[in-house]
Design a protein that fits this description.
Elements (H helix, E strand, L loop, with lengths): L10 H12 L6 H11 L13 H10 L2 H11 L9 H9 L8 E4 L5 H5 L6 E2 L15 E4 L20 H10 L2 H12 L2 E3 L7 H10 L8 E6 L2 H9 L4 E5 L2 H16 L1 H11 L9 H10 L3 H9 L9 H4 L1 H4 L17 H5 L60 H12 L4 H8 L6 H10 L7 H15 L4 E2 L2 E2 L1 H11 L5 H11 L2 E6 L12 H4 E6 L13 H22 L25 H19 L1 H9 L9 H8 L12 H10 L2 H12 L14 H12 L9 H12 L5 H8 L15 H4 L2 H4 L3 H11 L11 H9 L8 H11 L2
Parallel strand pairs: 1-3, 2-3, 4-5, 5-6
Antiparallel strand pairs: 7-8, 9-10
Helix pairs in contact: 1-2, 1-4, 2-3, 5-11, 7-8, 7-9, 11-12, 12-13, 12-14, 14-18, 18-20, 20-21, 22-23, 23-25, 25-26, 26-27, 28-29, 30-32, 32-33, 32-36, 37-38
């Protein structure tokens, strides 16, 4: 300890000075042993072979003990130029939270006393206070004794120097052992300035080893982590490795600066946090991590100006620090960004290397990786009986209580909630603790808050709250309602309400394709991806008397689905599978989403309600949402249903109005649905007459306005006519007045015409009529394969000279 800056001797140097002071002959045993000890190299994991306490034991055989001790007193006298900064630093670090200095030294000199800014109690052996009593241990303890102020003699009853002295202090009398054992039971101890083979440490640790837990003692040791651990591990001490002594002492100096004025240190470190974490070194990010690990430090972090940016969540959350780099996440220079390089701490284990067979596989998250979001051992809680909670994740849904420190971080996150990184982080959490959600919501309660961001956060927080209805990624709440209703003997209004609450569509949010949005200018639109979540739905057997209430709830939820879909995009998106099967095809042969299942339940329930209460079914049908994309499929199905009087459940006028206000995609979907209407002789009750319904639809429902005559609609109408089997002629006659020539072939989608080549010979007149009516003027704009179809028509004798065929051939020739 006294070697650094103060010019004090090492143990071998002290022995050499004493030998010189006493005038010991070079051929003496003590001089020879010292020479061997100084010239033998240390052995890795063992240290020095010869302990210098044995040298002093040999000297005490040849000289009076008092003379040896006086020589030692003179030998440890510091030079006038001694610098005591290191001693001051250790004194500052030895003060506890109560402000009391508690430092134990095995040095004989008085440098700590000289370095102290105010007089301190000085305790010498063998009578030490009991450390278990706080007031009993304060000041500087000279465990092995000390010299007097003049440095010409000792100033304590005991002076531990030779092997006999060590044996008495730690074994026979044991006063040093008892004191250190009591000290370890109350405090953790850090050894500074010792090597593993120093005599004081050897005797101390060998005496104490059976009596202390392995996490109580620490020692600084130069060298690699492996070498340092090897030297100390067998002694039950955790090694703290360092590269160079100047680095050790500069680090201790900075620690002492923190200890002298913790508030000033907190504020200075908090100033660093005002910068993005990616611009700091890992050790600086580590200082911020240490700062926010305490309640006082978290307050300093919260008070920093400018407010630390939301990107610090990348440091606080180990799942982000250890996120796998992705090729699509690049910096302005086009280089892939490694989240660990942006957010990693100096204390973090390095990420595991990528799997060569799967380089894009996720990195493993090390056990025990530090997180500011989870409970920490030093956290304090208002109520010790309530379980502790994370700020996010599984335990946040209960919810259990947050610590005071976590509450402070929640307030900080609320203050930076407008930043895209905060939204991106929150979108990746399955749950947010209510205290965190409330802190975010408070941020946007002011009149000056951005209205769009306010709504985004409201939706995001609401989406996370409603995750509570899900278990293991599945929506099980509705199954519980059905099971409970069945077990209790039947349905009631209460069960109906619970069912529709559990199955109502809701907004769901996730992170967008951007892995970690380190760019602070990114917009919320670039970091969030929204969709409408349709909870999984159980099979429900609803009694007839509850059918109307059931249809009402389904309709209400479908209306909500339309509203939510409308919020997310210019047109709501529903990919409904057709309500009618075609030629025995599987009913799931169209691409669908959960909205499709939802709509089918509603149609099935309406059909049951028609049979049970036609008047009620008519009322419910008219309440269906109209004019929304794909919902016309439901209306079309309802239009085909008849009540007991033979009237359609939905009038042709109402369906036409819905088609006119719908999008082109809606109308095309309706036509595709129409095409699937086929005879079903096995249906019970008999299915509606498909040909009659098709003709009625084309005559009474399909709008005549020009804006409905899109390429997609023309293609769908043509397909209805030419795939009508034995009714091709009738359907073509009904459809021809509705057709018009399109400007280009892109939306025609006439690929199906090529698959119908074998029917051309059966219905050539109909094919020619339809193609002549809708094909663009330029043959170069025709769909692939249609020219070959025209050539096939030209080989049919009955069509030779037909002006329509001649015109098509002229277009092919480019005349």
């Amino acid at each position: 300890m006294s070697l650094h800056q103060a010019g004090g001797p090492t143990f071998p140097q002290l022995a050499q000075r004493v030998i010189t002071e006493l005038g010991v002959a070079s051929e003496s045993t003590a001089a020879q042993v010292l020479d061997i000890a100084q010239n033998l190299p240390a052995i890795d994991g063992v240290g020095s072979v010869v302990a210098t306490d044995q040298i002093f034991g040999l000297l005490e055989r040849d000289f009076p003990v008092q003379n040896v001790r006086r020589a030692v007193s003179k030998a440890v006298k510091p030079p006038e130029t001694a610098i005591l900064d290191a001693h001051r630093s250790l004194l500052d670090l030895s003060r506890g939270p109560d402000g009391v200095t508690r430092l134990v030294t095995t040095n004989f000199d008085l440098l700590f006393e000289a370095a102290a800014s105010t007089p301190l109690d000085c305790l010498v052996p063998p009578l030490f206070p009991n450390p278990s009593k706080g007031a009993g241990f304060r000041g500087i303890v000279h465990l092995h004794g000390k010299v007097n102020d003049a440095y010409d003699d000792i100033d304590s009853e005991e002076f531990v120097l030779s092997s006999a002295d060590f044996g008495r202090a730690y074994l026979s009398d044991g006063w040093a052992t008892r004191f250190m054992q009591a000290l370890i039971e109350r405090f953790r101890i850090v050894f500074v300035g010792y090597s593993a083979d120093d005599p004081p440490l050897k005797y101390l640790l060998e005496a104490l080893r059976p009596n202390y837990a392995g996490d109580r003692l620490y020692a600084f040791q130069s060298g690699t982590a492996k070498a340092a651990s090897t030297l100390w591990m067998q002694k039950g001490v955790t090694a703290i490795p360092f590269d160079r002594f100047d680095q050790l002492w500069s680090t201790i100096t900075l620690w002492a600066k923190r200890a002298r004025d913790p508030e000033a240190w907190h504020n200075s470190i908090a100033e660093l946090a005002s910068q993005p974490p990616g611009s700091l070194n890992p050790f600086e990010r580590g200082q911020i991590a240490q700062l926010v690990s305490s309640q006082v430090g978290a307050r300093a972090f919260l008070a920093a100006k400018p407010t630390p940016p939301a990107q610090w969540l990348g440091v606080f959350d180990p799942a982000i620090r250890y996120a796998t780099p992705r090729d699509r996440l690049i910096d302005p220079k086009g280089t892939a960004i490694d989240p660990f390089a942006q957010f990693g701490l100096d204390s973090d284990l390095l990420p595991s290397p990528s799997n060569p067979q799967n380089p894009r596989s996720d990195r493993a998250l090390p056990d025990g990786a530090w997180s500011a979001l989870e409970p920490l051992p030093t956290d304090t809680y208002p109520n010790s009986s309530i379980p502790r909670s994370s700020m996010r994740g599984g335990s946040a849904q209960d919810p259990h209580q947050l610590s005071s420190r976590q509450f402070i971080l929640s307030n900080w996150l609320g203050g930076v909630a407008e930043q895209p990184f905060a939204m991106w982080w929150a979108a990746g959490q399955h749950h947010l603790h209510p205290a965190l959600s409330e802190a975010i919501e408070r941020t946007f309660e002011t009149p000056t808050a951005d209205a769009a961001l306010r709504q985004t956060w409201r939706d995001l927080v609401d989406a996370k709250r409603k995750n509570n209805l899900r278990y293991g990624g599945h929506d099980l709440a509705a199954y519980g309602v059905v099971s409970s209703a069945t077990a209790s003997g039947g349905w009631s209004e209460w069960y109906m309400q619970r069912l529709f609450e559990a199955t109502e569509p809701r907004l769901a949010v996730r992170r967008s394709w951007t892995d970690v949005p380190v760019d602070p200018t990114a917009s919320s639109d670039n970091v969030l991806s929204w969709e409408v979540h349709y909870p999984t739905y159980p099979e429900v057997e609803v009694p007839d008397e509850w059918l109307r209430r059931y249809v009402e709830g389904l309709r209400s939820n479908l209306t909500l689905a339309v509203a939510l879909e409308t919020r997310l995009r210019s047109e709501p998106y529903f990919m409904l599978r057709p309500f009618e099967s075609a030629n025995g095809d599987d009913e799931h042969d169209f691409g669908i989403n959960h909205a499709s299942d939802f709509a089918h339940r509603l149609v099935d329930a309406l059909r049951r309600l028609i049979a049970h209460d036609p008047q009620a079914a008519s009322v419910e049908d008219r309440a269906l949402p109209r004019g929304y994309r794909r919902i016309v499929g439901i209306l079309l199905s309802a239009w085909r249903q008849h009540d007991d009087s033979g009237s359609r459940l939905l009038s042709s006028e109402d369906l036409k109005a819905a088609l006119m206000t719908a999008s082109d995609a809606d109308r095309v979907m309706a036509l595709n649905q129409l095409m699937r209407w086929n005879e079903d002789a096995t249906a019970d009750p008999p299915a509606p007459n498909p040909l009659a319904d098709k003709l009625a639809f084309l005559e009474e429902v399909w709008p005549r306005q020009s804006f409905v005559r899109s390429g997609g609609a023309m293609s769908a109408l043509a397909q209805i006519a030419l795939t009508g089997g034995e009714h091709v002629s009738i359907l073509t006659e009904a459809i021809l007045p509705l057709l018009t020539r399109v400007a280009n072939a892109a939306p025609l989608g006439l690929w199906w015409m090529r698959s119908q080549d074998e029917t051309v010979a059966v219905n050539p007149e109909e094919y020619l009529a339809v193609m002549s009516a809708i094909l663009p003027v330029r043959a170069g704009d025709w769909p692939y394969g249609v020219q070959q179809l025209v050539e096939k028509l030209a080989r049919i004798a009955d069509l030779k000279g037909d002006p329509r065929l001649v015109e098509l051939q002229r277009r092919i020739a480019g005349i």
